[in-house]
Design goal:
Structural class of chain A: alpha+beta
Shape of chain A: globular
Strand order of the largest sheet of chain B: 3-6-1-14-11-12-13
Radius of gyration of chain B: 27 Å
Largest sheet of chain B: 7 strands, mixed
Number of domains of chain A: 1
Helix content of chain B: 25-40%
Shape of chain B: globular
Number of strands of chain A: 7
Number of helices of chain A: 6
Oligomer: heterodimer
CATH class of the largest domain in chain B: Alpha Beta
Chain lengths: ~210, ~775
């Protein structure tokens, strides 16, 4: 699967790049991240929850930052595996300064997936991945705003979204025109409904 | 020929059980103390196994045992080659790399088993997947057939020099000389992609070892109970008589259930012995998609040499056949392709060459059609291209080249799946084509309807193709026919049943011979405790081969009954006859003795016994044909293509078929319609799609599209041509795969005809609306 796209950050390149290399911010922007530990400045290990259509589960993986030319470009090498299968990807990220003081991020990459993720989830993975990236950029936009404000001596609150909020963001984004698909409906309606029923059932059983 | 019940559309003996939910399927069986098995399967298509740590899984409550390849010691060894190598073909090369029961050192396809978990329930067993830590080193995968044979390609089997699994060349006449004389030589690259068997019921196995009697009972959803019993007994060092394989009702076979060397077949029997508990495994749909077997991935470089009058001088076909990661089923599928490429037509010079290739994909073994559909697809496409080139009507060019009805028996010079030269035993191909053309209303459609529809801006097209179906191949089957003391008849045979209607067809054959009610014939198939000789259900051979054995055994019983009846009634043998479950005096049916009474008398318990006689009203017989009988037919269809969405609706379809003598016309019709549905799936719906890393992208019915009842044509017309086969007494030929064989070829022709003559030339199957859109776009850009 090939992924490519771009995003404009409203801030100078040095700041954007600095933020990008801050593991805490990065972890907050990576969907479903449970933990992200720095092994050294270019290697991270962590766990992440992934949900793609009917496929979900925990992934453990490694992230390597290679060929770094700060603050201009770097290559991300990701490898993860878990119950839903495995993913292996190489992504190239370029940061370029623009005349209006903003920074243009361009990315391109190739992701190989396997296991249930591929055999059952592939029909949705493209959309989910794009949606996840979009939501991640929105998170980074807010982080950047907070960073710049802090520098200017102002306080703008940046709270990293929780996994649930992030998932909601992705689901909301995907729901645009997607609610007619059975699997999406399943995730959006049926599962919360089932949980609700389970809770009611639990309460009732306690009452007895 | 047709008799009182033979040749009649008798309703099915099995339906009352199936329709009222009384039929027992494998997952209905629960045994006391039964454990459940689940297989942890590889996500990678090609990888080296570094370590498998199962220690955490063993701690999970409810998990009884976990096994990897290492735990099986010497018991772990590759399975038997289920079909012999093609040594009968001169110069053939074949590298046997049979299935391994569970991956050891390396995995070769995504879905290959890594660990076997035995637990108190399937839920617990599957939960334990998460506890197992597998370290693997991924390797580059081989998927593309041509790239697989390039130097430096990753090797599926590293002990081989390349991924070439087999190489077979067969030729009759001399193609190159013929091509030199031809007015036109047309060459094309034609590809056929994979499809699944997709039976409604997946595979399953239940093993029960009795440690006191030292006997094993196995319930299996197999098409080959006797070979399965034999290989299990051999591996465990038991006598065949210590292992009984029973096939309960089975929800469809379609080919993949012929396998007897899958992980469950090999591992569950010994584990059941070790644990001394019954173990059940039921395959889930994802496992079925990933790791059963499938078919149809071939790439052909084909050419046809024709005169300007449309006479075929020769055909050459060099093709690659994907056998998947192993080749346990030998070369049955590509040999079927070789024997079915030109078989309808007089092609004096024919060269066919196959390179069978190992790849990091699931193993390929027959799926309904089994190699035949691609042979037919290639040939029918070549003829269509030639017709375009010559500006000739597609029906006319076929007419000019079809084998005539006076040419049988016709040796083909090509060796097939039964390792003898194929001989076309009987048939009438021109009559089949004539009838199909008439049923579909070809002339009227071409001359009147299509011009009018085109003027209205509609895109309707017509296609007409011919096909053969090699059926009823050897080696042999057998049967025992017994009259019980209750006066009813028991028939048992070694092949198993997956829903074809054997309980009815076999009952008809026996009832006709013995003069009993068809409902009074009880048929047992696929239970080695009842009958333990035979090969299995494949190659449309159930009726032609096992049916013939039943006929022979019933004839013997008839002779016995007449002999005994004449003795008991005190009249000469030529003056007694069988009537309604009795032996009667001819001309005076009031003097009779019932079959039940005779059955008792045929088994004396005191007194003397005639030397050389056999007790009981019972007989066993075996039947093996010298070569398979060949069914054939012609298919025509009219399609309506929506040029906006490229959706295609088959409006009308006519199929004419010759399966020799019809034992039960209603069941023949059912087989043909079922086959057509599969053929329609193969033409426009079903596709097992692998990515370049060997990941199957269509492992659920969300992505693997099966045609539904609504995708069947509005109007289906059936025609029969009955040309009895001389190879068995009843003149039967098989029909189980007929509908699946010609459909993709006919569909392609009809779609081309609907869109624009000759501009669009389809050279692949399956199609889909999006693929068709791309092909049309490409053809208009030219």
């Amino acid at each position: 699967m090939n992924l490519e796209g771009e995003h404009v950050f409203k801030g100078p390149r040095d700041e954007v790049y600095g933020m990008f290399r801050d593991p805490e911010v990065l972890a907050s922007a990576l969907p479903g991240t449970q933990s992200l530990n720095m092994v050294d400045s270019n290697h991270y290990e962590g766990t992440m929850n992934v949900r793609i259509g009917p496929v979900s589960g925990a992934f453990s993986g490694k992230l390597e930052i290679a060929d770094e030319v700060a603050p201009e470009k770097c290559t991300l090498i990701v490898e993860g595996k878990g119950a839903p299968g495995f993913a292996k990807g190489v992504g190239h990220v370029h940061f370029s300064e623009q005349e209006d003081g903003t920074t243009l991020l361009k990315y391109s990459g190739d992701v190989q997936i396997g296991g249930t993720l591929a055999s059952v989830g592939q029909r949705m993975i493209d959309s989910v991945a794009k949606s996840m990236i979009k939501t991640a950029f929105e998170t980074l936009d807010k982080a950047l705003e907070a960073r710049l404000a802090a520098k200017a001596g102002q306080e703008v609150e940046f709270k990293a979204p929780t996994e649930a909020q992030f998932a909601a963001g992705v689901a909301k984004d995907m729901a645009k025109g997607w609610t007619q698909i059975a699997e999406v409906r399943m995730v959006l309606y049926v599962i919360p409904m089932a949980i609700l029923l389970a809770i009611i059932g639990f309460i009732l059983s306690k009452c007895n | 020929m047709s008799g009182k019940v033979f040749g009649q559309s008798v309703t099915r003996n099995e339906d009352p059980y199936l329709l009222t939910g009384k039929a027992e399927f494998i997952d209905d069986i629960e045994l006391p103390g039964m454990l459940h098995a689940a297989f942890l399967r590889s996500d990678y298509a090609h990888a080296r196994i570094k370590s498998i740590d199962v220690s955490q899984a063993l701690k999970r409550p409810g998990v009884v045992a976990v096994y990897t390849a290492a735990d099986f010691g010497d018991y772990w060894r590759p399975g038997p080659l289920q079909v012999p190598p093609p040594t009968a073909i001169k110069g053939s090369v074949f590298h046997a790399r049979t299935l391994v029961p569970i991956a050891k050192d390396k995995v070769r396809f995504s879905g290959e088993p890594l660990a076997l978990i035995i637990a108190e329930s399937r839920y617990i067993a599957e939960d334990a997947f998460d506890d197992i830590i597998v370290e693997m080193e991924p390797l580059d995968a081989v998927v593309d057939l041509e790239k697989a044979l390039e130097p430096g390609a990753p090797l599926v089997h590293e002990d081989l020099e390349s991924n070439l699994a087999a190489h077979v060349v067969q030729e009759r006449g001399n193609y190159e000389e013929a091509a030199a004389k031809a007015d036109y030589v047309i060459k094309r690259r034609i590809s056929v992609d994979r499809c699944a068997g997709a039976a409604m019921e997946n595979r399953g196995l239940l093993v029960d070892w009795n440690d006191r009697t030292r006997e094993m009972t196995i319930w299996a959803s197999t098409q080959a109970p006797i070979p399965l019993r034999n290989s299990i007994a051999a591996r465990l060092g038991l006598f065949e008589s210590q292992v009984r394989v029973i096939t309960p009702y089975i929800g469809g076979g379609f080919g993949p259930k012929i396998m007897t060397s899958q992980a469950d077949d090999v591992l569950l029997p010994i584990v059941a012995m070790w644990l001394n508990r019954p173990i059940k495994w039921i395959e889930d749909r994802r496992e079925n998609f990933l790791a059963t077997t499938s078919e149809r991935d071939q790439l052909h470089y084909a050419e046809i040499a024709v005169t300007k009058d449309g006479i075929i001088l020769g055909v050459k076909d060099m093709f690659y056949h994907n056998t998947g990661a192993y080749d346990p089923y030998g070369m049955t599928v590509p040999l079927n392709t070789q024997t079915h490429t030109v078989s309808n037509y007089n092609v004096p010079n024919f060269k066919t060459e196959v390179k069978m290739v190992f790849s990091n994909t699931m193993v390929v073994t027959p799926v309904r059609g089994a190699g035949r559909p691609y042979g037919v697809y290639v040939m029918e496409r070549l003829i269509d291209y030639a017709a375009c080139e010559l500006g000739m009507d597609p029906v006319e060019i076929r007419r000019r080249n079809l084998i005539r009805s006076d040419q049988y028996p016709l040796p083909t010079g090509i060796i097939g799946q039964d390792f003898v030269e194929g001989v076309l035993d009987s048939g009438d191909y021109p009559e089949e084509l004539r009838k199909a053309v008439e049923l579909i209303g070809y002339e009227k459609f071409i001359k009147e309807e299509q011009p009018r529809l085109r003027a209205e801006g509609k895109h309707k097209g017509i296609g007409v193709v011919c096909f053969t179906e090699g059926t009823s191949v050897g080696p042999y089957e057998g049967a025992r026919v017994t009259v019980g003391a209750n006066g009813k008849v028991n028939v048992s045979t070694g092949i198993s049943t997956q829903g074809q209607g054997h309980f009815t067809v076999y009952a008809q054959i026996a009832a006709e011979e013995l003069g009993v009610d068809v409902r009074d014939v009880n048929v047992t198939t696929g239970d080695t405790g009842h009958f333990h000789w035979g090969a299995g259900t494949f190659a449309s051979r159930g009726t032609g081969v096992a049916g013939s054995a039943i006929h022979l055994a019933a004839s013997k019983v008839r002779q016995k009954a007449i002999k005994l009846g004449s003795k008991l009634l005190g009249v000469p043998e030529d003056q007694v006859e069988l009537c309604d479950g009795k032996v009667c005096v001819a001309g005076d049916h009031s003097r009779f003795i019932s079959l039940g009474e005779m059955a008792m008398k045929a088994n004396p318990t005191r007194g003397t016994f005639e030397q050389g006689a056999e007790p009981g009203l019972e007989a066993v017989a075996y039947f093996g044909p010298p070569y398979g009988s060949t069914g054939a037919g012609a298919l025509a269809m009219i399609v309506d293509v929506d040029p906006g969405s490229m959706d295609v609706k088959i409006e009308k379809l006519a199929i004419v078929h010759d399966c020799g003598t019809l034992v039960n016309p209603m069941l023949v019709e059912g087989q043909i319609l079922g086959g057509l549905s599969m053929g329609i799936g193969n033409a426009f719906y079903e596709q097992l799609k692998y990515d370049e890393n060997g990941q199957l992208l269509t492992a659920s019915f969300m992505d693997y599209l099966l045609p539904q009842a609504t995708d069947m044509p509005d109007e289906v017309l059936l025609g029969h041509v009955e040309r009895p086969s001389p190879l068995n007494e009843l003149g039967m030929k098989g029909v189980g795969e007929a509908g699946a064989i010609p459909t993709p070829a006919c569909f392609a022709q009809a779609v081309e005809n609907a869109l624009a003559d000759c501009k669009l030339q389809i050279a692949e199957t399956p199609l889909s609306p999006s693929r068709l859109f791309e092909l049309v776009k490409k053809s208009t850009e030219k």
